[in-house]
Amino acid sequence: TLKDMTKSGKQRPWREKKIDNVSYADILEILKIKKAFNVKQCGNVLEFKPTDEGYLKLHKTWFCKSKL
């Protein structure tokens, strides 16, 4: 499981955000809104690169901002 920490040591809530995203996409699907598939695919691919300090840093992903 990915544990992404901020510089202050707090864990970023990516898992919760993805769960919310999937729930939102399910609602869009129920309502027959065409963007449901696109919303469900948001953030599925995460690409990381190592830093000089030995940590992994998010390098590339595909986020979307879909509002009701």
Automatic annotation (TrEMBL):
This is Replication protein.
